[in-house]
Amino acid sequence: MKLVERYIFLRALKVAAATLAIAVAIAWTTQVLGRINLVTDSGQTALTFLSLATLLLPTMIPVVAPFAVIIGATQALSSMNQDSELSVIAAAGAGRMTIIRPVMLLAVLMAIFSFAVDVVVEPAARQRVREIIATSHADLLSSVIQEGSFRRIEDGLYVQVSDRLPDGRLGGIVVADSREKDVDLLFYAKEGDIQHVDGGQVLLMRDGEVHRKAPGGDVSVIRFVSYAFDLSGFASKTGEIYFSPKDRSLAYLLDPPPNDRIVQRSPRLYTAEAHRVLSEWLYSIVFGLFALAAAGDVRSHREARIHPMVTAIAVALIARWQGYVVTDKVEESLDFVPWVYAMIAGNILFALYFILSGRAMTPPADWFGKIGGAFAALTGRRAEAVDAPGTVGGRP
Predict the structure, then answer these.
(1) 306 within 8 A of 371, measured Cβ to Cβ
(2) Nearest C-alpha neighbor of 173 from the set 150, 155, 191
(3) Segment 222-273, tens digit of pLDDT
(4) Of 175, 260, 313, 339, whose Cβ has the fewest other Cβ atoms within 10 Å?
(5) CA-to-CA distance for 99 and 106, rounded, in angstroms?
(6) DSSP string, 33-63
(7) Handedness of CA 284, 287, 293, 299 (dihedral sign)
(8) Is residue 95 within 8 Å of 168, Cβ to Cβ?
(9) In angstroms, rounded to a whole number, what is the distance separating the alpha carbons of residues 200 and 85?
């Protein structure tokens, strides 16, 4: 690699890496905040929470990586054009490949990285996240008991907890049990906790009393120091781990077992996900070409045109939207499978047209005049309506 090419590559790489880190951090924060209640409510440790948060990172990289490429390459090339560096490179006799090679090298490396994450890292991370969530759900504390509200465990049995103490204890426990015909039981306890006994779950209440209403209407009150209420028979069965197509490896997606529940119900879900994995990494290359088409040429500062990054990202969003739509259509019919790759090939040819022809991928210059004229005409009519004789502020 020549010195100039290395300079362009490193400059684009720095911006792309920073963009990738910032975008992943933002997306990661939103995902973690959406799951923080799940982990804290189930009494999990801080280490479990950090493990869950870390495992969410690989799921965002394949989506963000192509946009990191287009932002990094476009920003680097636009800055070099503004600093007249592209003009100096062209005047020195360097061909266009001097600019194309480092950008495409960045795009290819990001594509390989994205593919490795999508195929190897992300499925394993997603499966581990499912296991952590299933473990949390399996705890009765997270599945049926929540602070400050009555939760129905089954017909006639309700549990309410006033406070969730930091050490895992429960404060202000109320249990209403009317499952037995004509008999109502009401348990009050100052505190308690969930304990696992012989593979089951027991609500151990301390310092409380039981109010029992007999069929004849008589009420008896019994105070207790501790009382064990067996809840193991009502524990949620959500501890069973369910893997969606996004959680499966590429090998599993391409050849799922016949007894898989998703295969029996909707086998095209696996097919759609497999082609998403096989096509998603290519968008880094497509977006690299978009960056070259939008900002890879020498342009005068006097030219009235939209900033290349705006144009490149707008086209990239449209291309990515096309990919999502067609991939989702595979779930309805396998006839859309060729279109997944046809869309990518079409976008590559679209970008190559501008690169090979030397034209900048930007809206025509007369668009600015038309937009400005329409805006001036619209604002002019409004001004006339406001300043018309016999009116004040547009009103008679």
Answers:
(1) no
(2) 191
(3) 888 888 877 655 544 444 566 788 888 888 888 888 888 888 888 888 899 9
(4) 260
(5) 12
(6) HHHHHHHHHTT--HHHHHHHHHHTGGGTHHH
(7) negative
(8) no
(9) 71
User: Could you tell me which residues come within 8 angstroms of residue 131 by beta carbon, excluding any fewer than 6 positions away?
Assistant: 241
* Token digits of residue 84: 């007249």
- pLDDT by 10-residue block (mean), the chain, 396 residues: 87 93 85 65 63 82 92 91 84 84 94 93 86 61 59 75 75 84 86 73 84 83 84 50 81 87 84 91 94 82 70 92 92 91 95 86 63 66 52 46
Who's near 393: CB < 8 A, 6+ residues apart? 386
Q: Given the DSSP bridges, would you call strands 157-164 and 170-177 parallel, antiparallel or unpaired?
A: antiparallel
Question: 154 in helix, strand or coil?
Answer: strand
Residues 6+ apart with CB under 8 A from 169: 191, 192, 193
For residues 271 and 242, is the Cβ–Cβ distance under 8 A? no
Instruction: Classify residue 241 by burial, with Cβ atoms within 10 Å: 0-12, 13-18, 19+.
Output: middle
Angle between helical axes of 46-55 and 3-41 (0-180°, round to 10): 140
